[in-house]
Amino acid sequence: MRTMQVILHELAGLFIDDGSLAVALLVWCAIVGGAVVIAPRLPATVSGPALALGCVAILWANVGRAAKLRAAGR
Amino acid sequence: MNWLQLGPAATVAFLGAFLASFVEFVEAATIVLAVGTVRGWRSALSGTALALAVLCALVLVLGPALTQVPERALQLAVGLLLLLFGMRWLRKAILRGAGILALHDEDAIFRSETANLRLARATARWGVDPIATVTAFKSVLLEGVEVAFIVIAVAAGGAGLLPAAASGAAVAGVLVVALAIMVHRPLARVPENTLKFAVGVLISAFGVFWTGEGLGIAWPGQDLSLLALIVVMLAAGLAGVRIAGAVAARATVRVEAR
Description:
The complex is a heterodimer.
Chain A lengths: L1 H14 L3 H20 L5 H30 L1
Helix pairs in contact in A: 2-3
Chain B lengths: L2 H4 L1 H32 L1 H26 L4 H27 L8 H14 L10 H27 L5 H22 L8 H24 L8 H34 L1
Helix pairs in contact in B: 2-3, 2-5, 2-6, 2-7, 2-8, 3-6, 4-6, 4-8, 4-9, 6-7, 8-9
């Protein structure tokens, strides 16, 4: 039973390390998905790069925050 | 449709599965080597064989079930999982690259695992040591589930990608087993953070691509945009290392000035 719990915990850990990064990415994907549904004429040259660059911005903000917290905690 | 016709997507699927699986196999091999060295190879290999049997059963049960899911829903679900998975690796590799997190050390893991295994007391039954068998089983099962997920997720994004992804994982598995047999100690010289950085870049690019497809975005240039996404993620990762390093340096100066 304990082995199963460890396995399930490790499986969740595959996708979620810092919860705020996972939540921010999912929210951004939902926003872009909503925009694609609401404005179907939105060109892919806008929605595609917006999806990718939004994810990059979220990653940068997250590593910046993590770096600040770790440095302050030393 | 053959591999050549699939072009960039198949190549990225092969590379992504190969690199990610290589890292996972190295982690599993470290534990199996520790178990085998301290408590005997019979128990280490029994645990490994048992985990491989469970993994095969999981893939045989779950694999066909995935074909019942509508393609776009599958692309969206797989895309989101790959995005979370890839970004998690990329984040960790960036923080390690910037010197904020400690590097993964297979030698240290091997030493700590062998020390724990030496302390554990258990009686062998039928020539098999239960603690050693469970330790090897757990490690191979966990890392194996990760490999299975990577192969299924990368392949589920498009028709015909399974052979490329499965080949990538198989080549990585054979390579790690061969290296482990040859050197008979943990593969500590593998540049794990560089590999994790590369995997993070590839898997994140795949994740953005399949998420976009699942959301109904028709990528300009279709599969070729995957290559552009890889370049974007690589540049983002490299810039991320600089950002994290600069932020940490500024924060340290502020803390020291207080």
